[in-house]
Amino acid sequence: MPRGDGTGPVGGRGRGQGGGRPSWAGPGGECVCPACGYREPHERGVPCTEKTCPKCSAFMMRAR
Ligand SMILES: [Zn+2]
Questions:
Q1: Ligand 1 centroid to residue 60 C-alpha, Å
Q2: pLDDT at residue number 64
Q3: Per-residue confidence in pLDDT tens, the chain, 64 aa
Q4: pLDDT at residue number 2
Q5: Quick check: pTM over 0.70?
Q6: Cβ contacts of residue 40 below 8 Å, gap of 6+?
Q7: How far is the CA of 52 from the centre of ligand 1 (A)?
Q8: Which of 46, 49, 47, 42 is nearest to 27 (CA)?
Q9: Hey, what long-range contacts does 30-33 have (CB within 8 A, 24 or more apart)?
């Protein structure tokens, strides 16, 4: 794909997001269990991947 057509660097890095967090990694997300589909609101400061599903004890994933 063409990249340098005179507009400078292309990409989503000019928004002042520090720390390398994806834009969706903010409040308001959900954690979802990849095994059984259980969802719960994401708890701030607690990565979904460190939580386990209350139903089947699998590690949760971040959902949008
Ligand atoms: Zn589960």
A1: 8
A2: 74
A3: 666 667 666 666 555 555 665 554 445 689 999 999 999 999 989 999 999 999 999 999 999 7
A4: 65
A5: no
A6: 30, 31, 54, 60
A7: 8
A8: 42
A9: 30/62, 30/63, 30/64, 31/60, 31/61, 31/62, 31/63, 32/60, 32/61, 32/62, 32/63, 33/58, 33/60, 33/61
Ligand 1 centroid distance, CA of 44 (Å): 20
Distance from residue 47's CA to the centre of ligand 1 (Å)? 16
The owner of tokens 């959900």 is 30
Task: Give the Å distance between the CA of 48 and the centre of ligand 1.
Answer: 12
Q: How many residues does the chain have?
A: 64
